[in-house]
Inverse folding.
């Protein structure tokens, strides 16, 4: 077992209310039992735990600050956290933050630059697109405040490092070209487009049925725009599918057959499963063992049978997936998208047909350019 990512929930509350949020709006209520912010005591325990683990694993791992909204912790507590982490982890260990950007200030940007913390900002598109789902607590627009935060990063002297890119949840009814071009206007060096959370028992927004391919069609249109751009930003989802179709490897969970070790640390120090599983059912992200950075050695947790069972969820068990020629590229998708009440995760992804439509489109485009694609998907793309 190798751990690639330790994702730290530094805040269990958020300053906005995205209607599609898997933490607050998909039936799980575990956040209510967590401290609103990570305490200094927990920060110290976390730093000690990852320092010990870093000495035991020869492979580097990334630390990701997450929430809720991580910047609700404020500049002083953030500085305490980053000091503790950097005292435990050398600069070669990447630390990053995922934020909605609304609380980004020059002071925060200076701290992130000082401690070498890159920042990714969540934004779904131009104002009419973003403000359909990413709203304030009273239903107000968030767009302008997010863009102001992005501009803090863009105007910083260390912007090339600080501004890691944008994360965008796909709205399949909007224009992918307009979203892409808008993100380029915002100087995004990288864009990570994400499927909407959902499963077979709770169909994702905008998806008519398991057989439909609204998201795959949207991404296929985006692919045409992306490949026609002579100076594109990085689009991780498309890049990974292209590389995998050519027989290479992806870089993130949810595509391909590589395995990723991902651990979540809650604001009280509890160790849990990937928090996106919350969208499956209430408590889906909880281990039966009460592990915590305050009382558990991370190496023991990551080497346990229960953690391995969670880790193995990445690989699909469905006979349909195992027989599919797209599997090496698709990877079966994210575990949360395979959930069905009664059958649990033993199903293809709810986005199965979307994945097939997109991978087929990618393979066809590559073949038209005279490139040799992975022979295991060649028949399907002909």
């Amino acid at each position: 077992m190798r751990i690639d990512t330790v994702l730290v929930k530094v805040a269990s509350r958020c300053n906005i209310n995205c209607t599609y949020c898997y933490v607050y709006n998909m039936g799980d209520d575990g956040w209510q039992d967590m401290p609103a912010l990570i305490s200094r005591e927990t920060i110290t325990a976390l730093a000690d735990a990852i320092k010990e683990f870093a000495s035991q694993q020869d492979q580097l791992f990334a630390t990701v600050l997450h929430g809720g909204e991580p910047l609700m912790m404020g500049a002083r507590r953030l500085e305490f956290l980053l000091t503790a982490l950097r005292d435990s982890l050398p600069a070669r260990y990447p630390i990053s933050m995922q934020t909605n950007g609304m609380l980004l200030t020059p002071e925060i940007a200076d701290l992130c630059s000082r401690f070498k913390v890159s920042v990714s900002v969540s934004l779904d598109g131009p104002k009419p697109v973003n403000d359909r789902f990413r709203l304030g607590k009273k239903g107000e627009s968030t767009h302008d405040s997010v863009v102001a935060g992005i501009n803090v990063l863009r105007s910083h002297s260390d912007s090339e490092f600080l501004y890691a890119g944008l994360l965008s949840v796909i709205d399949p009814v909007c224009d992918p070209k307009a979203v892409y071009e808008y993100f380029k206007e915002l100087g995004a060096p990288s864009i990570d487009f994400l499927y909407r959370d959902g499963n077979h028992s709770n169909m994702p927004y905008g998806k008519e049925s398991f057989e439909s391919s609204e998201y795959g069609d949207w991404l296929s249109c985006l692919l045409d725009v992306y490949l026609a751009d002579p100076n594109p930003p990085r689009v991780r989802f498309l890049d990974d599918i292209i590389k995998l179709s050519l027989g290479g490897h992806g870089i993130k969970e949810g595509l391909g057959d590589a395995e990723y070790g991902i651990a979540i640390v809650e604001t009280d120090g509890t160790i849990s499963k990937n928090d996106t599983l919350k969208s499956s059912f209430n408590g889906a992200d909880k281990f039966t063992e009460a592990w915590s950075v305050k009382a558990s050695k991370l190496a023991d947790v990551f080497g346990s049978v229960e953690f391995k069972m969670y880790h193995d969820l990445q690989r699909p068990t469905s006979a349909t997936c195992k027989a599919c020629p797209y599997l090496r590229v698709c990877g079966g998708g994210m575990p949360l998208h395979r959930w069905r009440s009664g059958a649990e995760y033993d199903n293809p992804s709810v986005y199965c047909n979307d994945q097939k439509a997109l991978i087929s489109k990618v393979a066809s485009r590559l073949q038209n350019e005279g490139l040799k694609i992975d022979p295991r998907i060649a028949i399907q793309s002909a």
